[in-house]
C-alpha cells in the first residue's frame, strides 16, 4: 500500500493567494526572481494583471528587461520620466509600445513630457482615471495642446488630475467628473470660482494660492457642498479673504494652509470654525511671521500660542499647536501637529537648544506625535541625561515600548539613562537601553535581574541599582559575583608621588578621561620621556596657554599630542568670534610653527539633517579636517546629490584627490554626482566616482575622454557631458560609437549638454 505525503508549500497555494503575495512585491522581484522559481510561477507572472510600473529612476538595462518581460494589458499604473537621469524615456517607451495596448491602465504619471509625445498618448480615447503630468518646457509650444487638455479634463473616466500649468485658458466642462484636482500653481479668484462652479463632484482641491483682488466679488450666498478638502500650499491671503473663501464650503472636513502672519489669531479661528465649518475634522497649518524685536524668554512665545490652547482646541477638536521661535532672525512659525509641511516649515532650531537633561513621566497612553512634538522645542541631540518613569501595567505597553525605543534612538548623544519602575523586568530594560548609553540607573525586582543586566549590557561604564526589600540580604553574594565577573576597582584618596619617574614609557592614551587639568599634569610629570600623548576628555583642558607652558617645561620629548575636549558654554554663542576665543590659545607660534600641531573646534550634531543636495568649491588646499567639519552640521548620509568644483592644477592635487575620495565614500547614499572642471582628466574622474553613483555630470577635455569614462564606469545608469569648443564637430562620430557600444542608449543634446541614458553593453 502506498501513502502519499503532501508537504504544504508556496508552490501549492491557490493562484488567488499568490496574486495577493505579488501585490506586495516590486516588479523586478516578481519578474526576475519569483518568476524563475518554477514553471508554474512563470505562467502566473504572465497572467498577473496588477503591475504598477515606475520608471522614474531606473537603469536602461532594467527598463528594457521589464519592457520585454511584461504584457501591457497587465499594467494598471505607469510612471514615465524625461528627467536628466532618463532622457527621452517616454519616446523610447512609445517606440516599444502603443498606448492602445494598455487596456487596463488606470493611473498615468508623465514627468517632463514633450508636447508631441503627449499628443501621441492622448490622441485615442482611454480609460485612465488618474493623471499627473508636467511638460518638458515651462510654456506650451503648440496651441492645440490647450484644446487637447480641455478634452482630457472632460473625459468621464477621469477622477484624479495633477498638473503644474496655469489653468487660464482651459475649459472646465460641467460634465467633468473629477473628484481630486491638484494644481501646482496660483489661481486668481475668477479661475478658482470657474473651477469649483463646474466641477460638481470635486471633493479635494489643492493649489498654491488663490489671489483675490479688490474688485473681486464673492457671493457668500452660494455654497459648494461637494468639496470636503481644500489646501493652499503657499498662501498670501489675509484672514478676511480666507474667511470669505471658506464660507463657500460649509461641509469642509479638512483644511490645509501654509501662510503668513495674518492667521495668528486663534480666538478668531475658533469663533469662525464654530459658526461656519461645523464639519471640519482636520485643520493643518503653518503660519510664519516676525516679532520685529528680540524675545528673550518663553513667556513672549507663550503669548502667541495661548489662543490655541482653549478647550475648543485641546479637548473638543484635539488640534495641538506648536510655536517655534528663531532667535537669530526674530522669525517664528506656528504650526499644527502632525507637521503639515516639514520640508520647509519645521524649524531645525528648537527653543531649548542647550538643554542637556530631560525627565519624562508616562502614566497612560503614549501621546501621538509626542516625540516629534518634543523635537520642535528641545534639541534632542543635546540631551545627555534622561530620566523616564513609565507605567507598564496597562493596555498601552507595546505602544509605549515602541515609542520609548524610537525616542532613545533619536537621543543619539544620550549618556546617562534613569528608568524608574520597580515592575520593569530586566528583559525590558535590556531591550530599551541603546548601545550609546554609558550610565544606567534603574530599579529591578531581584538580584538575578541585576546580574542579568550587567551580563547583557556590556557597553555600560557604570550602573546604579536601587536596593529595596529583601535584596539587601543577598547583596554580599552579588558583590562577590561582581568582583569575579567585572574586576571592578575603586580608588579613593590616591597619592601620586611626583618624585618617581617612569622613563621607559613613551606613549600614553586616555580614551575617555574624567581627569581635571591639575591631576592630568601630576600624572604626565611621571613620564618625562613621553613622545606621544592621546586624551579624550571634558572642558578642564581648554587652556591652550597652560598646555603650552606645561609641555615646554615637562614634556620636552613630546612629538605628537592628540586630543578631543568637549564642553558647554552655558550660553548661546551667536557668531564665530565667540568660538574663535576658545581656539586662539592653540594658535600661538608654539602650536603652529614649532610643533605644527593644528587644532580645530567642531560643533556636534548636524544642523541640516534633511539636506539632500550639496555643492562644494575647492580652489586651493583642501582644508584640514573639512570632511569631519562638514559632518558636524550636515547629515552626510542624507546627501543624494553632490556638485563639486575642484582646481587640480596646483601642488595640492594628491591631497585633494585623497580627501574627495574619502568624502565620497562617506556619502554612501549619494546617487548623483556633478564634477565641474574642464581640466579634470578621464582617469581622475574614474578614480573619484564610487560604485554606488548612478548619475554623473561632468566636463572633460575631448571626445576620447567621454568614451573612456563610459567604458570604465559601467555601473552608471546615465551621464551628462558638457560640450564645448571643437567637441561638437566630433559629436556625430561619438554618437555612432555610443550606439554600437551601449545598445539602446538614448540621448538628448541641446547645444551645450549631452545627456545619455545608458543602454546595455554590447559584448
UniProtKB/TrEMBL annotation:
InterPro entries noted in UniProt: F-box_dom
Domain of life: Eukaryota
Domain F-box positions: 7-58
Name this polypeptide is given: F-box domain-containing protein
Source organism: Adineta steineri
